[in-house]
Amino acid sequence: MDIKKLVRPELVTMNGYAPIEPPEVLSQQTELPAEKVIKLDGNENPYGCSPKVYQALATYPYYHNYPDPEQRELRKALEEYTGLGRQHIVCGMGSDDLIDLILRLFLKPGDEVINCPPTFGMYPFSTDVCGGRVVDVPRTEDFALGMAGIKKALTKRTKVIFVASPNNPTGNTTPEKEIMELVDTGRIVVVDEAYCEFSNATVANSVPSYPNLIVLRTFSKWAGLAGLRIGYGFFPIEIANYLMKIKQPYNANAAAQAAVLASLADIEYLRLNVMKIVMERGRLFGKVKELGWLKPSPSKANFILCSLSYSPPCHSEGAKRPKNLAREIWQQLRRRGIFVRYFDTPRLRDCLRISVGRPEDTDVLVKALKEVKHD
Ligand SMILES: Cc1ncc(COP(=O)(O)O)c(C=O)c1O
Known about the structure:
The protein has 375 residues and is α/β, with parallel strands linked by helices. It has two domains: 3-47 and 269-371, Alpha-Beta Complex (Aspartate Aminotransferase, domain 1), CATH 3.90.1150; 51-266, Type I PLP-dependent aspartate aminotransferase-like (Major domain) (Aspartate Aminotransferase, domain 2), CATH 3.40.640.10. It contains 15 helices and 13 strands. It has helices at 3-6, 9-13, 23-30, 51-59, 72-82, 94-106, 122-129, 147-153, 176-183, 196-199, 237-246, 254-264, 267-291, 325-335, 359-371; strands at 38-39, 89-92, 112-115, 133-136, 158-164, 188-192, 213-218, 231-234, 294-296, 303-308, 338-339, 341-342, 351-355. It is globular and about 65 Å long. The relative contact order is 0.15.
């Protein structure tokens, strides 16, 4: 039986998402003990989650029951945390789930989605899976949105525009004025604020005033809950109601809901960790810059995009710069148990994205970068 003939043709040829691996897999792949793994590739929280989460998960009594499909307690707690009414809030299995859900709500086959690369890979991925057409409008040299390009790219079939702010992997935010200009185009504008707690820039307060502005948030980054998969969004009430109708009824699982409630009850602890990460971001930026051959981009998130302005010191005199030096350096770091992200797209070919770790992680990374060689 030829299964391929039964699969939607566009899914046979589509590129999959390139995900990162968990520490235990990295440890097996590199044959390094897990405690030697320095994981700076997933923009995860190096301080982990609140200790109160472990307590809450250990004592939660209802794992044998389905969780609340209306996410009542969760949305109430999020209303208190964010100041936006719970009727605007919908939670999902990570913001990835909400990206998919939004596209499932709005896209008919062939409808267009504006994507502004370099940016988060789940926007084109989910557009493809949902049968939409990705329209790429590249960012400018300094990674700002190509506003004129976006407006030129709009057609009758343009349904959704995605803007990550701060953007992954470039770390810059988009000014509110530009977001509002996009809202004025009448398309669904999704502002992905996954890193908002590190930037303190948000347009969430505008959501109740516009019928087409959506803001997404997550507990993966600032609250250290990436493994539990829980995110949320602010939606105009009409859109929130549709999403509540079409979402999988139990998409926010019981453990994730309990973990969020425990996290929000320990907000001071989590804010302190965010502050530590923001401080370390500044130190990492300075240390990388000092190397002289890696150019860090200013970042409002918990990672820094670094481009290789020229080659690091070579082993042998006259050695040629390899075609993909970023990959080469990524590999050398990997052998030492340090995991960062490199990208295989033309625009990011000479770039590494380094997540901000603890000060001791920065020290080990910088020492390794000083020793990096190629020939
Ligand atoms: C911009 C952006 N949005 C969303 C996500 C995914 O968040 P979640 O873990 O909530 O699915 C990421 C994760 O890297 C991201 O960089």
